[in-house]
């Protein structure tokens, strides 16, 4: 189990988490900043020169769940994780990867009014300015301490401009944060009192939002998607809670299962629809390449027809899998879908309009890429 303690500058994450490990038997403090420090030390400068936040590195989001899973194989847990996540797509990627490893997450948000947060940040900056030598947690002047090496020195206090920018990001993230996490107001609380409230929430199961435990595929897969349309020919997209970005309804074809049946089954599980596999029309066959840690495979896209007002009213979302749906135009889908999926959707809409079936490789119609290469050559 993981207790993920979220919050902005001055929320009190570090102190509360240290106290929390004394309240939860078997718990271990895991600071993902250690992963970030390691990446910054290893990656070449040209890769990190423009990275303002280590959480923007795909490798950080990949490694944090891996390291957490490895630690939980060594210790009984839970892991207590003090880490700010203000972007919902990053939360989905990290928490979804943990869920795929069957690691439950209690998400707790430490909150305080902005005036309190600003005062705490200013007090920390003033204390740092008065304190000579290295930051607390680092080695003292004259050499390392005789005891165990510190786990990781804390980050330096942010500048006033940095605090303002971060608080603006935090303010914008509050709607989804407060919907996703159990909230503890730290105003007037000591780190110990905050930890006691977190421990009580964990014991009560608060902050644990179920996430579908989709196992990581061991090889390339075949997947079937079903496109559903409204009266304006906008296409339905869904927002998964277990991975970043929006998706088409659908999923992986199981062993021995017909692709059309898989599409109908997945649409029913995700949306509560009652489609007839015999009415589906194939639009696109796309080969998705294996890139990085993501497996690829064959992606089939079917036309599932239109949903009228009554059909839309019957749509239901499983809370552990999807948080929302919407009908969008191709232009609107550009800000929601990954580039490869956007190419696939554009091809599917073209196939739907012309009545053809398109064969794609990495989103490009077979033959068109070769023609473009000849033209460029």
Give an overview in words.
The chain has 377 residues and is of the alpha/beta class. The chain has helices spanning 13-23, 33-42, 45-48, 58-72, 88-100, 114-130, 160-180, 191-203, 259-271, 309-313, 330-333, 339-354, 368-376, and strands at 2-6, 28-29, 79-82, 105-111, 182-185, 221-229, 235-240, 250-252, 281-288, 297-306, 322-328, 358-361, 364-365. The chain has a 6-stranded mixed beta sheet with strand order 8-6-10-9-12-13, with helices on both faces. The protein has a 5-stranded parallel beta sheet with strand order 2-3-1-4-5, with helices on both faces. Strands 7-11 form a two-stranded antiparallel ribbon. Strand 9 (281-288) and strand 10 (297-306) form a beta hairpin. The radius of gyration is 24 Å and the shape is elongated.
Morphology call: elongated
> How many helices does DSSP assign?
13
Describe the strand arrangement of the main beta sheet, using strand numbers. Answer: 8-6-10-9-12-13
Rg for CA atoms: 24 Å
Give the N-to-C terminal Cα separation: 55 Å
What string, H for helix and E for strand, traces the elements in order?
EHEHHHEHEHHEHEEEHEEHEHHEEH
Number of strands: 13
